[in-house]
Amino acid sequence: MTGAVPDPLPGWLTAATRVTALTGAGISTDSGIPDYRGPQGVWTRDPDAEKLVTLSYYMADPEIRRRSWLLRRDLQDADPRPNAGHAALVDLERQGRLRAIVTQNIDGLHQAAGSDPDRVLEIHGTVNEVLCTSCGDRTPMREALDRVAAGEPDPSCRVCGGILKSATIYFGQMLEERVVDAAVAAATDCDVLLAVGTSLTVHPAAGLVDLAARSGARVVVVNAQPTPYDDVADLVVQEPIGTALPRLLAAPA
Is 203 part of the annotated catalytic residue set? Predict the structure, then answer.
């Protein structure tokens, strides 16, 4: 089934008690954070922007690092806030029906909306912390951005002098095994896998849909554009996320 949110909702959805949500950039666009791969995505409009999050370029080129710090500053200054899509998942958790949120996003908006941090698996890390690439020291992003504002265009680690980066997973960098294992467990131990605002083209995140389906879960895809997994899904919704999710996840009558 493809298109609008069905009325009434399928019984298997309203009866679901272990829903795992897989979220991508599309859930945060209503918060003012642009997506990356959509028709107007950051990398669609400027392919060179992908270098800012490619580890080899970042480590080798101070100019790439300076541009990256300015991008992080702009994101923080924009002060994005959670939207109705994030709130719908908080409501689902309060209903006792949320197994986990596996997110490809780095913005921390699920936690800001009120989702239990222990249920949020950030497979691509977080932009709210800074990591030293040499000694592994972690500090708040705000501290590093204050240094940038004070005139350090490419701040270095205060512990060892190493190169700092956001605590996100760059291209060319391995995902954290602990987080991936938890995401796989959440996908294989749910009755509904809800993919929201993700193109489902980036692995291993996209592969969680296959794992869930093979484990007997129903699959719901909510995305503005078609995905490679629409044929696998039991329900595909192409309405705006901010209006579709609250209706899909409403408490059973």
Answer: no
Nearest to 18 by CA among 207, 215, 231, 202: 215
pTM of the model: 0.90
By CB neighbour count within 10 A (0-12 exposed, 13-18 middle, 19+ buried), where does 65 fall?
buried
**In this structure, are strands 192-196 and 235-237 parallel, antiparallel, or unpaired?**
unpaired
Among 169, 107, 113, 117, which residue's Cα sits nearest to residue 141? Answer: 107
The one catalytic residue among 86, 110, 124, 203: 124
Cα–Cα nearest to 241, from 22, 12, 3, 28: 28
pLDDT of residue 150: 96
State the pLDDT at residue 16: 97
Q: Which residues pair with 195 in a beta bridge?
A: 22, 221
CATH number for the segment(s) 1-33+82-124+175-253: 3.40.50.1220
- Fold of domain 38-79+126-168: SIR2/SIRT2 'Small Domain' (3.30.1600)
Closest CA to 68 of 89, 82, 54: 54
Spans in the chain with pLDDT lower than 50: 43-44
Reported in sequence order, the residue ranges of 75-169 that DSSP labels E, i.e. its strands, are 98-103, 120-122, 125-132, 138-140, 164-168
